[in-house]
Amino acid sequence: MKGTQYYIVAEHTFCVKAADSILALMQNYEPFRTAPIEDLLFGLTVTNGSPVDYIEEWRQDEEGQDTICGHTEQGEPVFEFRFGGKTAGWLVCVPGYRSATLHLSGFQTKAALDNSLMIQFAMASACLETVLFHAAVVSLDGRGYMFLGKSGTGKSTHARLWLQNIHGTELMNDDNPAVRIKSDGTAVVYGTPWSGKTPCYRNICALIGGIVLLSQAPYNKIVRLNGIGAYAAVVPSISGKRWDSRIADGLHETENMLASSIPVWHLDCLPDANAALICKETVTQDRK
Amino acid sequence: MKIKKGFVLRTVCGENVIVGEGLDAINFGRMLCLNETAAFLWKKAMEYGDFTADDLAGALCQEYDVDQAQALNDVKETLDNWTKLGVME
């Protein structure tokens, strides 16, 4: 049996059309379920499929996970997902990413589905002042504090240190929060169904209180980044296909607004309680 | 000469910055801040496509109150810099 389910993430709506057995895998999306709606940002159809022919443009290799980007001869964007060299599926999108079909190989179905929805979400919302971050985010006193850094820097560790040492802190998302600039110019961070290895799928949001880029160091020290420094800190943490100039323009708009309106910091840190305390002292006193 | 494919001039917090966004520039991994004159030259270079130092010096003289020799000097210095940084070919 096939069914359609509707979801709302960061106030953007989408639907997934798939066999019931596939929909049953989407437990992490349950907090984001909504009643059927007509005005959707995008729709994804999931089928069992065979290899899709496409021309490769670029590939990203991350810890044994390959994402290969390309396009069909007709110009439709294609993404192939491989895990340990084995293909899980091919995502074929219409230009603009409003609708797409995921062709499953039968291997790593859940991961292919999550990757497809993250890509479609990021691409379809890029020109709507929305970005999908690679970050851990906590909330404290109604504000969201985002921790950025390269893979393995300790984003999740730093977030956990806040939870353990700062009363009132909650984890909003551990890997892929969404950020939106609202029409009044405020920046809001949202929990999403995507949270890396930590099952933290919360349909919540908060005004952003600060963004902190983390680096490992043998000491703890925090400095404020302004202008271009803030922009350069934020850009590498945002997913996108920047060689598509329409998407690059949209992401730049949002990144520039974040860099000019949100306090951005660089924290050199140890994985210790003191790092969380110093960070918290500095970033929470600078609310504006 | 020409600007390599994939580089884009962006306004970041009111400043002119060159970023690598295209497939050919995606691993550039840094940003170049341009002053007002350099940003003007960049825009002219993009407009011309294929250009010479003389072309840009001519454009500079039309826009700013500077003599040809000084303009050519400034342009060459900027182009040397861009070549070293790998944004030009």
Short description:
The complex is a heterodimer of chains A (288) and B (89). With 288 residues, chain A is α+β, with helices and mostly antiparallel strands.
Question: Would you mind describing this structure in some detail?
Answer:
The complex is a heterodimer of chains A (288) and B (89). Chain A is of the alpha+beta class. Chain A has 2 domains: 2-125, no CATH class; 131-285, Rossmann fold, CATH 3.40.50. In chain A, 24% of the residues lie in helices and 38% in strands. Chain A has helices at 20-23, 109-125, 155-165, 227-234, 245-261, 273-285, and strands spanning 2-9, 12-19, 33-34, 42-48, 55-62, 65-71, 77-83, 86-93, 99-104, 130-132, 136-140, 143-148, 170-173, 178-181, 187-190, 205-216, 221-225, 264-269. Chain A is globular, with a radius of gyration of 19 Å. Chain B has one domain (7-84). Helices cover 47% and strands 18% of the residues of chain B. A 3-stranded antiparallel sheet of chain B has the order 1-2-3. In chain B, a hairpin with a 2-residue loop joins strand 1 (7-12) and strand 2 (15-20). Chain B is globular, with a radius of gyration of 13 Å. Classes of the chains: A alpha+beta (288), B alpha+beta (89). Chains A and B meet through helix 4 and helix 5 of A and strand 1 and strand 2 of B.
